[in-house]
Design brief:
Largest sheet: 3 strands, antiparallel
Strand content: 25-35%
Radius of gyration: 18 Å
Length: 137
């Protein structure tokens, strides 16, 4: 396998209120907290990335996906977020995703799913520890 260049993402954000943050990608803007909270954005990003990766894997495997539906759920104990003394982490305790896929013709969906899980960047970030450095300017 050849080495490839990393794609760099740099977003900027401004506080609109205690519950709303405007985020700019440079090409687009969105407000976290307007319609959904940050945890819902994270979960939505995961299923959106699974859809996109699923389409790429299907193309590579010559599978024609006619429909893909997803259900995602995860539990957060907000006691940690509130500063209460509990053992739970502040984040999601686990995430479960259920996919329903319809294809044209026969397709090896087990192999497709395995490839999707291996190639999905957001799934990788949720499943594996990714270092985060937070600093003050």
């Amino acid at each position: 396998m050849g080495d490839s260049e990393l794609s760099n993402y740099e977003l900027t954000a401004s506080r609109l209120s205690p519950r709303r943050t405007e985020v700019s990608t440079g090409d687009a803007e969105f407000v976290v907290g307007k319609d959904v909270n940050p945890v819902e954005y994270l979960l939505g990003s995961l299923v959106a990335c699974l859809n996109l990766t699923g389409a790429m894997v299907a193309r590579d495997m010559d599978i024609d996906i006619e429909s893909l539906e997803a259900t995602i759920q995860g539990d957060v104990n907000y006691a940690t977020y509130r500063g209460e003394d509990v053992d739970d982490r502040a984040g999601l305790q686990g995430v479960e995703v259920s996919l329903s896929v319809e294809t044209a013709g026969d397709a090896d969906l087990d192999a497709w799913l395995s490839n999707v899980e291996d190639r999905c960047p957001v799934t990788d970030n949720v499943e594996n520890e990714t270092g985060v450095s937070i600093s003050l300017d």
